Amino acid sequence: MKIDRAARYTKDHEWVRKEGDLYAYGITDHAQDALSDIVYIELPEVGEEFAKGDTLGTVESVKAASDLYMPMDGEIAAVNEALISSPEVINSDPYGQGWMVKFTSTNTGDWDSLLTPEAYEQIEGE
Fold first, then answer.
1. Is residue 49 a contact partner of residue 75, using CB atoms and an 8 Å limit?
2. Of 60, 117, 118, 120, whose CA is between 20 and 30 Å from 3?
3. How is domain 7-106 classified at the architecture level of CATH?
């Protein structure tokens, strides 16, 4: 499986990458592979605030539906609207065009609690 060395990870197979003052978020290559063909995604509205661990949306595949969890405290600054009509992009490019939301963090210390690429590789196969 591919991983993004510039990102941090959650045990739920989600990634977060710093992009200037924002954090980009999506699901990992491992997660999209496990879900198989993604057919639908529900994402939050710009301006919504979430605490770390809150459900921010849902991704559905031909196999299952899975909740998406906010990896850090923050406010949604951008939503990848292209995924609404083309959710399969998540399967083909999970770390690039398959990003789901970008957010500002209200607790930048949350970044330090995320898994490094090396730590994520240790749990990736679990």
1. yes
2. 60
3. Beta Barrel (2.40)
What whole-number distance in Å separates Cα of residue 26 and Cα of residue 17?
A: 9
78/38 Cα distance (integer angstroms): 21
- Closest by CA to 38, choosing from 69, 13, 59, 9, is 59
From first CA to last CA, the distance across the chain in angstroms is 13
Q: Structure pTM?
A: 0.95
Residue entry with tokens 């003052």: 21
In angstroms, what CA-CA distances link 96 with 24, 54, 73, 79, 101?
10, 24, 23, 14, 12
Domain boundaries, given as residue ranges, for the chain: 7-106
pLDDT digits (tens, 9 = 90+) for 31-85: 999 999 999 999 999 999 999 999 999 999 999 999 999 999 999 999 999 999 9
